Amino acid sequence: MAKTIKHVLLNTLDDLSQQDLRSFCARLLDREEGPRVRRSALEDKDTITIVDVLVSTFTAAGAGMVAVEMLRAINCLELANVLVDSLAVSPKKHFVDRHRSALVQRISSMAAILDQLLDRRVVSKEQYDTIIAEATRQDQVRQLYSGPLMSSGTTGKDIFLSVLGEMEPFLIEDLRRDELR
Fold first, then answer.
1. For residues 158 and 117, what is the distance between their CA atoms, to the nearest angstrom?
2. Are residues 105 and 169 in the same domain?
3. Domain containing 103: what range?
4. Could you tell me if 74 and 149 lie in one domain?
5. Total domains, the chain
6. Residue 77: CB atoms within 10 Å
7. Are residues 12 and 76 in the same domain?
8. pLDDT at 163
9. Whether residue 106 is found in the same domain as residue 161
């Protein structure tokens, strides 16, 4: 029987020490990208409630990657990698793969996004130069997909999604809303 995202997240958070769980919640509360989590939803709560908050706030599709982001932020890298592996078992495509066509057409700030991806080492300077030299913004996005995002796998796509959330929040919110319909 396949485990649900709630079971996977619960098993992951149960592996955290009390201190790490507090740090996880603190980072979740400080997370700048929306949607935001209210302090009252997490304060003095058990892991079951925290998992429910994650899933209800970020949906089942997004909760896992938000948890990975928070685990990495508190330096629980091994646990984050285990969670990524658990999430990868799902046959569902990554968000940026599911919305490739829309992203190719609708991303408007490619230069700023590429700057962030260079800073976060998803693209090399050489790849950056190749992509930025493309004639159109759509061709730049296509080049990013066919090169760095393809080779960096889920981790690169997670970072790309995070950058998109920062740089193009309304686009990402719109695409997430479309998934819920």
1. 11
2. yes
3. 95-180
4. no
5. 2
6. 10
7. yes
8. 95
9. yes
Distance CA 144, CA 162 (A): 15
What pLDDT does residue 178 have? Answer: 79
The answer to whether the Cα torsion of 146, 119, 162, 26 is positive or negative is: positive
pLDDT along the chain (181 residues), means of 10: 78 92 92 85 90 88 87 90 73 81 94 95 94 95 91 89 94 84 65
Q: Burial-class residue 152 by CB neighbours within 10 Å (0-12, 13-18, 19+).
A: middle
- Helical spans, DSSP H, in the chain: 5-14, 18-30, 39-42, 47-73, 77-88, 95-98, 100-106, 110-119, 125-132, 137-144, 150-167, 169-180
Angle between helix 125-132 and 137-144 (nearest 10): 150
End position of a domain, from candidates 36, 61, 88: 88
